Each structure stands twice: as C-alpha cells, then as structure tokens.
Known about the structure:
Layout: H1 2-21, E1 53-56, E2 63-68, E3 74-78, E4 82-86, E5 93-98, E6 103-108, E7 114-118, E8 122-126, E9 132-136, E10 148-153, E11 159-163, H2 170-173, H3 176-186, E12 191-197, E13 202-210, E14 213-218, E15 224-229, E16 234-239, E17 248-252, E18 257-264, E19 270-277, H4 280-284, H5 289-296, E20 310-315, E21 321-327, E22 335-340, E23 346-350, E24 355-359
Amino acid sequence: MKPLLGAVALILITAVAYLMLWPVPIDPVAWQAPRNDGYVGRFAPNDRLDALVFAGLDGHTGPEDAAFGRDGSVYVAIHDGAIVKLDLVTGAAEEFARTGGRPLGIETGADGRLYVADAFRGLMVVDQDGKVALLSNNTSDGSAILYANNLDIARSGVIYFSDASTKFGAKAIGGTYEASLLDLMEHGPNARVLRYDPASGETQVIADGFSFANGVALAEDETYLLIAETGTYSVLKLWLTGEKAGEVETLIANLPGFPDNLKRGRDGTYWLGLVSPRSAPVDALSDKPFIRKVVQRLPASLRPQAQRYGFILRFDGDGSVLETLQDADGQYALTTGAIEGPDGTLVVTSLIEPHLGFLQPGWDSKTGDDES
C-alpha cells in the first residue's frame, strides 16, 4: 500500500509543479475587465440572421472577410490561403487566387485590384488576373509585420491596416486563432496600426500599444480611423487630422463579445462583427495574471474557447448602436463582420463556416424584414 500511496503523491506533486512552474509563452498583464451585462438593452437577442441565404465556397471553409469587386462578384478571403470569386446571383464560385499565407482583411482599391492583409505574409495586392504580389512585410524602422489583420484604403490610395500582435506572430505560432488566443490571454500592449504609402512604398507605425488591434475602418471624410480593440471589447477612434491628430479615444466600450472586422456602410455608418460572446472565466481572471499562466498550462480543450453565436451590429460615428442582427442558436456562428453591396446586399462573414451568408437586396436594415 505504501508504494502505491507514494506513487500517487509523486504524481500529485509533479502535476502541481507543472501547473505552477512550467514555462509558457505568455507573460500576462493585469487589467480590470468591465462588468459584462451580456445581451441586454441595445444588445438584446433577436433572430434577424435567420433570414440569411447561403452560397458555397467551392469547397473552402472560413470566409474571414469579403469585398465586392468592380465586376459585381464577391471576393472572399479564406483561411486556407485562397481568394474565392463568388457570384451571389448564380451561386457560381471558383478559386481566383492564392496568397500563399493566411488572408484575413480584403478590400477593393480604386484601381480595381484587391488589397489583402495576410497574417502570415503581410500586406499584399491581387490584380485582375489573380496575380499576387507582396507590398510590405516590414515597417520603415525595420520591424517585421507578424500578424497583418484588417485594412481600409483612403481615396489617395494610402492603406491603413492593423498588425494584431507584434509578439505572437500568426505564422510562427501555427495559425491566426492560436496566436490570437495567446495574445488575448496575455493582454499585453502588443498591437499597432500601420500606414502604407504606395507612392513611397514605406510602411509607418502610426499608433501602437493596443490589445489585439483587429478591424479598421476610415471615416467617410477620412478625419479618423476606427479600430476594433478585441482585447478590451472596444471600438477606438484614432484621429488622423486636425487638432486631435494622433489622439485615441474610446468610441464604444464594454461590448458583450469579442469585436472583429469593421466596415463602413453605404450611409457612412459602420458594421462590426462580434466573433464570440465574452468568456466569464477570462473576465474573472483579468486581474490575476498568475492564474492565467496556470490556465495556459492546461490542455487546450480545458482552456476558454470561442462560443458559437452570430452577432453583427451597426453603429454611427458618435458610437451610438443603431441595430444588431443576431443568431443566438449559432447556426451561422463566429461572425467576423459584414459588408454592404452596391445593391443593398449585406454579406456576413465567419471564422469557421463552410459557406458565405448574405441578406438579399431589399432587406430592411431597420427591421430585418425582406421587402422584395
């Protein structure tokens, strides 16, 4: 009996030592998560995403972001490295290009080309023939871009884009999701916003110190840039011109989920995707960095994970939430964002789904009813 008890004691001591002392890649920063009121008030649950229609992705999965091309097609950035060209009317889909990395944000430039924030490779461009070229993978001061995430393009052709983590590179860690979990668990000031000037070919850091900077969107008059700061459940406003140039303000605080992509709509308001509801354990441990290290040592299956839920919201430049579109049952889940087409189609993107969701032209953005 004594040998058995000794073996059990040794196992327990080893397990405790592992949980207390084993090296982990994160160095957690203490902060105070705001109280999560959940889906109440302006975020009250609804079933407006039940009206989604779906289109296939030529066998691909994970339509992270999308952009309408000049030809009327939708170009979808896929996690496996593909850019899929999709006709929403006929449902025809084909692989248009391949970046050789992990394309996330995608936008159509004034020149008709597609500009892509690739988390593995950097800022890229795809011409009308599907030819891919790298624009930038380093800043002008020589620092590597490790997690290009989302972008927007000014009328001048200047590109603003987020580098979500300067510590946990998406390629080095083995994936965007894996790297994001590490960065969010650490909650360090590892993210920044970059500016690429096509005239000079230089990429400059215009703001840093963010907790996982994600979606970005320019104001209609380009006086400011909005930033979805995933780590703080917030949308920030970075002033680009005027007396406040360079200043950062909080536009929307205490969102009930993790904000992802940002897009400006046709009327100058903004669409934002919440990829998952907030995690109560993560919030409870926000001011307990040592315990977060212990959690990081647990098997991945026991750590907090994204929950299936669909959530898109629309807000204005003053931060007023105008409406939400939700799928509480998670039929189309881990929603990353939404884009509006010239005809009023609203395309909804996702981190994981095997198809693209969209609301057909004629849907009423105020009620969710289909008027067609």
